[in-house]
């Protein structure tokens, strides 16, 4: 995810508690040299993120009926993914301005969050270019 954000020059927000170890050491190991060029903001809680966020919150979820391809992105939209194992809590899902599904005609259950984010970010960039 950090590599994706760095390569596309978009900020990445990590909201605690997150589903992975988020320490400086873990960050350096997993992000390699991309952590040095990525714009990473860590939020101590969902509430603090909500207070600071600007733009629409767009949740990628398997629990939606709205296909990604039918959504019109706007500049400033924030893409959100949850934990691969559990998604996001219900209150977070309800706070989203839109909930989108990536159609998978091959019949798979779900994609991992990095792949899903890449697909959605690619579509947003395509629409807004």
Topology:
Elements: H1 2-8, E1 12-15, H2 24-31, E2 40-43, H3 46-52, E3 57-60, E4 78-80, H4 90-95, E5 98-100, H5 113-128
What is the C-level CATH assignment of the largest domain? Alpha Beta
Low-confidence stretches: none
Number of helices: 5
CATH superfamily of the largest domain: SPOUT methyltransferase, trefoil knot domain
In order across it, which strands form the biggest sheet? 4-3-5
Radius of gyration: 14 Å
Order of helices and strands: HEHEHEEHEH
Bulk shape: globular
Distance between the terminal alpha carbons, to the nearest Å?
21 Å
Tell me the structural class. alpha/beta
Q: What about the largest sheet?
A: 3 strands, parallel
CATH fold-level label of the largest domain? Alpha/beta knot
Features of this protein?
129 residues, alpha/beta, Alpha/beta knot, 2 domains, 3-stranded parallel sheet, two-stranded parallel ribbon, 34% helix, 14% strand
Give me a quick take on this structure.
This protein is of the alpha/beta class and about 130 residues long. It has helices at about 1-10, 25-30, 45-50, 90-95, 115-129, and strands at about 10-15, 40-45, 55-60, 80, 100.
